[in-house]
Amino acid sequence: MSDNPRAKELWEQGTQELMGGRIPEAIRLFEASLEVQPTAEGFTYRGWAISYLGLLDEAIEECKKAILLDPDFGNPYNDIGVYLMQKGQPADAVPWLERAKLAKRYEPRHFPYLNLGRIYLARGDKMRALDEFAQALQIQPDDPMALAALQTIQVAVN
């Protein structure tokens, strides 16, 4: 977490730009934040923005920089897992997602469970997927993805 208010303000603005689909502006703000103070958030979110450009290997490298700065920040572990899933490497994603589940500082905490559930469901391991989605719902009881996945699994099992 940044102890520099300006760095935090810039990566928060970058996040808003990214959510609005303004990727170049988001990247510019994340880079400005990193110039003020290198933070795990700045690297993670710059990686997130870069991933929208299809530059998944570069996004993974940004997340690894974040982990070096703050190994307790869970977002970059989950993000690496997602990028590996997008690259068609779900088996490589699993250890990263498991590490995200253990991170001391992470919001939204239920995401790695959802992503692991998706991997196990795609593998046909419905019981393991069910367990991951159920754990996600313990953390975030109204998550629509977990609820829909549970319904899909129940239909498939019955």
Structural class of the helix and strand makeup? mainly alpha
Could you say what the CATH architecture of the largest domain is? Answer: Alpha Horseshoe
Query: What would the CATH topology of the largest domain be?
Result: Serine Threonine Protein Phosphatase 5, Tetratricopeptide repeat
Please, what is the average pLDDT?
95
| CATH homolog superfamily of the largest domain | Tetratricopeptide repeat domain
Protein architecture, described:
It is a single chain. The longest helix is centred in the N-terminal third of the chain and has 15 residues, at 5-19. This protein has 2 domains: 1-89, Serine Threonine Protein Phosphatase 5, Tetratricopeptide repeat (Alpha Horseshoe); 108-158, no CATH class. Helices cover 77% and strands 0% of the residues. The model has no long low-confidence stretch (mean pLDDT 95). It has 9 helices and no strands. With 158 residues, it is mainly α. The termini are far apart.
